């Protein structure tokens, strides 16, 4: 077998491997879903049951209120996006926002209410902030991990109170299934997110 044929065969093998790898990640993302058996508590200390959540699109942000940069920047941009969606007549009736705390030890319901006020987030029932139950905090940290796992979202506290975490927000459908992810912070492009939301609204 000459070198040209070997090169062609190797190229085909590499191409098949790359295609298989891409297909794996695409299928994995398409199958991602928030488990139905998870319950957390809202900023009003009320139970939020994902199995009974509203049948609407949801933009899901994982964050913590003591974050010095990435989370607050994302929250600010989401609030501007919220205004765009209100003008389009879809916010609340077609899409909701969820902010899930990755630091439920410190992010009490009262702390979440303060966070909303600090960022001028209107408490209209369509942007729901979630944390853990004070009586079951260790269990609920695991619940937050279970929410993030299907989307490959990871987080950890290195010991200084400033979490290391995946830097995406996620758009999910009315059944809490993955649609698309978007970068957090300065890379959060509100027009791109708006366009995708409008495209996926029935």
Average pLDDT rating: 89
Tally of extended strands?
9
Q: What general outline do the C-alpha atoms trace?
A: globular
Binned, the helix content reads 25-40%
**Helix-strand sequence:** HEEEHEHEHEEEEH
Query: How many helices in DSSP terms?
Result: 5
Amount of beta strand: 15-25%
Give start-end ranges of low-pLDDT stretches: 18-28
Structural class: alpha+beta
For the biggest β-sheet, the strand order reads: 2-1-5-4-3-8-9
Radius of gyration: 20 Å
**CA distance, first residue to last residue:** 57 Å
Please describe the biggest sheet, giving its number of strands, its sense, and whether it closes into a barrel.
Answer: 7 strands, mixed
Explain this structure.
The protein is an alpha+beta fold and 202 residues long. It is built from five helices and nine strands; from the N terminus they run αβββαβαβαββββα. The protein has a seven-stranded mixed beta sheet with strand order 2-1-5-4-3-8-9. A two-stranded antiparallel ribbon has the order 6-7. The protein starts with a helix and ends with a helix.
């Amino acid at each position: 077998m000459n070198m040209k044929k070997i090169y062609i065969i190797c190229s085909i093998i590499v191409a098949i491997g790359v295609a298989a790898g891409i297909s794996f990640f695409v299928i994995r993302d398409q199958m991602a879903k928030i488990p139905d058996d998870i319950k957390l508590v809202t900023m009003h200390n009320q139970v939020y049951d994902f199995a009974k959540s509203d049948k609407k699109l949801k933009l899901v942000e994982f964050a913590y209120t003591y974050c010095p940069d990435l989370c607050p920047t994302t929250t600010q941009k989401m609030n501007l996006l919220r205004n765009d969606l209100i003008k389009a007549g879809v916010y609340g009736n077609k899409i909701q926002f969820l902010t899930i705390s990755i630091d439920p030890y410190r992010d009490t319901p009262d702390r979440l209410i303060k966070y909303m006020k600090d960022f001028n987030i209107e408490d209209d029932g369509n942007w729901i902030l979630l944390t853990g139950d004070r009586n079951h905090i260790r269990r609920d940290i695991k619940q937050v991990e279970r929410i993030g796992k299907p989307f490959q979202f990871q987080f950890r506290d290195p010991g200084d109170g400033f979490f290391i975490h995946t830097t995406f927000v996620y758009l999910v459908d009315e059944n809490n299934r993955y649609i698309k992810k978007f970068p957090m912070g300065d890379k959060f492009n509100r027009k791109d997110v708006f366009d995708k939301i409008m495209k996926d609204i029935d």
